[in-house]
């Protein structure tokens, strides 16, 4: 294992100290292991989070126009209810708090316990939405069903913009849910990643192979195939997403997301091929995001997220934001 770290068991705390140093608009609360906005504003608070290892998600999206607090668990592990409760308290200005939860069993349990604690013991009005944008996994009424992956960033952005407008909690939740309903994602991976405290990769992707639909924690995908060209990967990703949701003749926002070990050169090549495929399908990309938005430590690979836009979502997506990882003028 070759990593620029100190103590493998302290990587999260050391990382959050660095985030606080690098971003003067946030604070690091050591008790809750939370990154929060330094200056609380009189609006609905937005809180997200989950296991670490997906940076810049979610601490990189704390700031104007997006989140008010991001709660960090250990690497690939959900934060405890106590940590989430601290995030709620730091985000609360008296207007209520919306939790944006990615659909994993640990996150669902711990965030919802914290929601009950905040409501019952602190008197804070709290609600939540659940992001489940990964079309590689079948959705279901029972169990957790689909995973929440990089489409979550669109939820942060649109709900955050609505909150900055002074909307009430119910309206912010409506926009968050509308974004969830209109975003789909699909990813592929080329290599495994190494959790620092473990010291070795937890799975393998054979030489010359790629994993189709692998999750951001190394969860199994649909299949392993021979590695494909960028054009073939673009066609596969778009096909999987369009098979799940009708985007016909729609304007879309497009996120080509690296998983941590993919050079920007390759992400831009993939973006060009995705653009060609979308145009051939009659879709109209109007906003692009290319880079590392939700990673899996140093895993090589990429995911594609498409957000179907109407006038409301387009306005919110393009509204100003000022965070370390995403800015809109």
What do these coordinates show?
Helix content is 31%, strand content 24%. By secondary structure, the chain is α/β, with parallel strands linked by helices. Helix 7 (264-280) links the parallel strand 10 and strand 11 (284-291).
Note the total helix count. Answer: 8
Fraction of helical residues: 25-40%
What structural class should be given to the helix and strand makeup? alpha/beta
Poorly predicted regions are: none
The neighbouring-strand order within the major sheet is 1-2-4-3-5-6
Q: Whole-number radius of gyration?
A: 19 Å
Number of strands: 14
| Run of helices and strands | HEEEEHEHEHHEEEHEHEEHEE
**Largest sheet, if any?**
6 strands, mixed
Quote the average pLDDT.
96
C-alpha geometry: globular
- Proportion of β residues? 15-25%
What's the end-to-end separation, in Å? 40 Å
Concise summary:
The protein is an alpha/beta fold.
Give a topology summary:
Blueprint: H1 11-22, E1 26-29, E2 34-37, E3 45-52, E4 69-75, H2 81-91, E5 97-102, H3 105-121, E6 126-131, H4 152-164, H5 169-181, E7 183-189, E8 209-212, E9 223-226, H6 230-242, E10 251-258, H7 264-280, E11 284-291, E12 301-309, H8 311-317, E13 321-322, E14 327-328
Parallel strand pairs: 3-4, 3-5, 5-6, 10-11
Antiparallel strand pairs: 1-2, 2-4, 7-8, 7-12, 8-9, 10-12, 13-14
Helix pairs in contact: 2-3, 4-5, 6-7
């Amino acid at each position: 294992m070759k990593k620029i770290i100190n103590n493998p068991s302290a990587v999260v705390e050391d990382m959050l100290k660095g985030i606080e140093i690098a971003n003067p608009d946030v604070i690091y609360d050591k008790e809750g292991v939370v990154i929060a906005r330094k200056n609380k504003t009189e609006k609905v608070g937005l809180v997200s989070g989950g296991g670490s290892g997906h940076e810049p998600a979610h601490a990189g999206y704390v700031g104007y126009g997006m989140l008010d607090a991001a709660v960090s668990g250990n690497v690939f592990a959900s934060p405890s209810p106590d940590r989430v409760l601290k995030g709620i308290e730091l985000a609360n200005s008296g207007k209520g708090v919306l939790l944006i939860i990615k659909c994993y069993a640990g996150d669902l349990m711990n965030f919802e316990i914290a929601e009950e604690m905040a409501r019952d013991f602190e008197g804070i009005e709290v609600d939540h939405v659940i992001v489940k944008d990964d079309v590689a996994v079948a959705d279901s009424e029972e169990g957790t069903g689909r995973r929440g992956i990089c489409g979550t960033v669109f939820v942060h952005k649109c709900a955050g913009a609505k909150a900055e407008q002074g909307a009430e909690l119910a309206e912010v939740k409506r926009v968050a849910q509308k974004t969830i309903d209109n975003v789909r994602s699909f990813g592929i991976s080329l290599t495994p990643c190494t959790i620092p405290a473990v010291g070795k990769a937890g799975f393998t992707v054979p030489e010359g192979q790629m994993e189709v639909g692998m999750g951001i924690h190394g969860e199994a995908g649909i299949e392993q195939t021979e590695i494909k060209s960028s054009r073939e990967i673009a066609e596969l990703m778009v096909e999987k997403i369009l098979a799940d949701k009708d985007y016909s003749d729609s304007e879309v926002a497009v996120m080509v997301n690296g998983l941590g070990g993919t050079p920007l050169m390759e992400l831009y090549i993939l973006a060009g091929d995705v653009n060609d495929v979308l145009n051939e399908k009659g879709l109209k990309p109007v906003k692009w995001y290319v880079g590392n938005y939700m990673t899996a430590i140093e895993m090589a690979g990429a995911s594609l997220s498409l957000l179907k836009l109407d006038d409301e979502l387009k306005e919110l997506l393009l509204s100003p934001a000022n965070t370390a990882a995403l800015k809109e003028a």
